[in-house]
Amino acid sequence: MSQPTAGEHAALGEEPTELKRVMGPKLLLLFIVGDILGTGVYALTGDVAAEVGGAAWAPFIVAFLVALITAFSYLELVTKYPRAAGAALYTHKAFGIHLFTFMVCFTVMCSGITSASTAARAFASNLAVGFGLDETNATLIITVALIFMGLVAAINLRGVGESVKANVFLTLVELSGLLLVILIGFYAAFAGNVDFSRTIVFDDPGDKGAFFAVTAATSLAFFAMVGFEDSVNMAEETHDPVKNFPKMMITGIGITGVIYVLVSLFAVAIVPVGVLAESDTPLVTVVETAAPGIPAGTILPFISMFAVANSALINMLMASRLLYGMAKQNVLPSALGRVGARRQTPWVAILVTTAISFGLIYFVSRDPENDVVAALGGTTALLLLAVFAIVNVCVLVLRRDPIDRKHFVAPTVLPIVGAICCLFLVGPWTGRDVIQYQIAGWLLGIGFVLWILTWITNRLLGQRTGITDIEALNEPEGGVN
Predict the structure, then answer these.
(1) Count of alpha carbons within 13 angstroms of residue 379, beta-carbon side
(2) CA-based radius of gyration for the chain
(3) Rounded mean pLDDT, 271-290
(4) Which of 75, 346, 415, 454 would disulfide-bridge 395, Cβ 3.0–4.6 Å?
(5) Which CATH architecture has domain 21-472?
(6) Among residues 54, 123, 430, which one has the least CA distance to residue 264?
(7) To the nearest 5 percent, what fractions of the chain are helix, strand and coil?
C-alpha cells in the first residue's frame, strides 16, 4: 500500500514530521490500554479496600471519571499541538515561564521514578509469592526490589529499541492477568462462592466520613488510571491524529475503567476486606481463594511480575530521557547530558535516576509502619494530579491561540471541572499519608536546587538559563536510544 502524499497528510490535519506515521487506530488503542494497565491495579486493590471496605469499586469509578475529564483536555492539546513534549510543551506555550515549565517537566520525571519504584516493590512481593519465599521478610523484599532496579538500569544502559509491536505483545500479557481474575470471578460467582453483599458495605476505619474516605481511596486508585497521558508522545507517529486520538483515547480509558471495576468487585466479593488489605499481592490472594484447584494462583504472580517489570522499564526510560533532555536544554547541570561512546545511551542520567529510585525504595521501606507500595504509588498519583490540574488550565489559556487547522475541542466545562477535581485530590484534606507530601517535596526540592545551581553556573559563564527548544525535551538527540 502506498504511503499518503504530503498533500494527503495535510488534508488529514497532519502536520509535517520527520517521524514515520505507523500507528493506525487499533495499534493506538492497544498502546493506550497498555500504558494504563500495569502496577496500580495489581498492587493497590487491597489498599483501596482498606480505605472504604467493600465499596472498593467506588474509588476506581471516581478515578476513571477524573481521568476521562482530563483526557478531554489532553485530546484538545495533542490535536492542536501534535508534538512529543506533552505537558511541558503545553505549559510553555500557555505561560512562557522557563522555571515553571522546568518544574512541570521535572515533576513528570519524578512521577516516572516513583512509579518505577512502586513497580519494583510490587515485583519483589510477587516474586516472593511465585517462588514460595517469605514475603514478610522486609530485608529480602527490599534486596530483591533493589536488585530488580539494578537490572532495569543495566537494560537501560545497554540501550532499548522500543517498537509498537513489542508494546502490543506486552499489553496482551498484562491484560491476560486481569482477564484471568475476572473469569475466575465469574467462575466463583456461578459456583456460589462469592458474597456480593460485601460490595455494598462501606467501612471507614479512619472515621473520615464517606466523602473523605472515598477521596482518600481515589488518591490511591488514580495511580491505576495514569498512563493515558503518555500516549500524546505518539502524536507524530499516528495516522490522522485529529480523528483517531479522541476515539481511541476515550475507548482505551473506558476499557480499562470497566476492567478495574470488575476486578475490584470480584476481589471484595471473593476475599474478606481485612484479608485483602493485608496482602501484598491482593489479586493472587483472590485467585487462590476462588479457585484453589486451578494453577492460576501460581501463574498470576509471574504475569504480575511481567506487568510491573514492563511498567518499571518504560518509566525509567522516560525519566532518564527527560533528565537528559533537560540537561541538553541547559536547565540542569551539563554532566547529566553525557552519552556513552559505545552504547550511545545517556548513562549519567540513567545512573542518577536509578540512584534516586534506590533511595526511595530503601528509605521508605526502613519504617515498618509504611505501606511502601501505597506511599510510592500515592506519590505518583499526587505528582501527576498536580500536572493534570495545570494541563486543564492550559486548555483554557491556549484558547487565545487559535490555529488555522481542525482539531478536537473539549466542552469548556470539562477542563474547569478537571482542574478543580485534580486540585482537590492533591490537597491534604483527602487524607493522604503525609509521607507522600514528604517524598514529593524532597524530589521537587532536588529539582529546584539543581535549577538554581545551573542558573548560577550559567551566570558565571555569561550564559542564559532557559529552555531553547521545548519540543526537544522528550526527544533525545540522534544516536541516543
Answers:
(1) 32
(2) 22
(3) 86
(4) 415
(5) Up-down Bundle (1.20)
(6) 54
(7) 75, 0, 25
| 454: its cell numbers | 545551573
Say if CB 394 and CB 100 are below 8 A apart: no
Query: Would you call 23 helix, strand, or coil by DSSP?
Result: strand
DSSP 237-302: GBSSHHHHHHHHHHHHHHHHHHHHHHHHHHHHHHS-HHHHHH-SSHHHHHHHHH-TTSTHHHHHHH
Measured between its terminal Cα atoms, the distance across the chain in Å is: 29
Cell 476481589, located at residue? 267
Q: 291 near 297, Cβ under 8 Å?
A: yes
* Residue 323, C-alpha cell as written in the block: 533528565
Position 84, amino acid = A
How is residue 75 annotated by DSSP? Answer: H
What count of other Cβ atoms lies within 10 Å of the Cβ of residue 389? 21
Which phi and psi (to 5°) does residue 204 adopt? -120, 85
DSSP for residue 394: H
CB atoms within 10 A of CB 371: 20
Cell numbers representing residue 59 in the block: 474509588
Q: Taking Cα atoms as reference points, which of 229, 183, 191 lies closest to residue 89?
A: 229
Cα separation values, 5 from 25, 28, 83, 262, 299, Å: 19, 22, 20, 45, 48
Per-residue confidence at 168, pLDDT binned at 50, 70, 90? low
CA dihedral 314→316→321→322, nearest 10 degrees, is: 110
| Sign of the CA dihedral running 290, 293, 296, 301 | positive
Q: Which amino acid is at 216?
A: A
The least confident of 147-161, 190-204, 229-243 is: 229-243
Q: Residue 460 pLDDT > 80, yes or no?
A: yes
Reading the block at residue 93, the C-alpha cell is 506555550
Distance from the Cα of residue 477 to its chain's centroid:
24
Residue 62: all three cell numbers together: 471516581
- 23 pairs with which residues across the strands? 238
Tell me the per-residue pLDDT of 29-38, one tens digit each, with 9 for 90 and over: 887 887 788 7
Q: Measured between alpha carbons, how far is 103 from 278 in angstroms, rounded to an integer?
A: 36
Please report, to the nearest 10 degrees, the dihedral formed by the alpha carbons of residues 464, 93, 104, 230 taken in order. Answer: -130
**Residue the block writes with cell 487547522:** 405
Q: What is the DSSP letter of 409?
A: -
Residue 80 C-alpha cell reads as 492542536
Reported pTM: 0.86
Count Cβ atoms below 10 Å from residue 342 Cβ, excluding itself. 7
- Asked if residue 338 lies in contact with residue 347, where contact means CB atoms within 8 angstroms, the answer is yes
Q: What is the 3-state secondary structure (H, E, C) of 134-196?
A: CCCCHHHHHHHHHHHHHHHHHHHHHCCCCCHHHHHHHHHHHHHHHHHHHHHHHHHHHCCCCCH
Residue type, 151: L
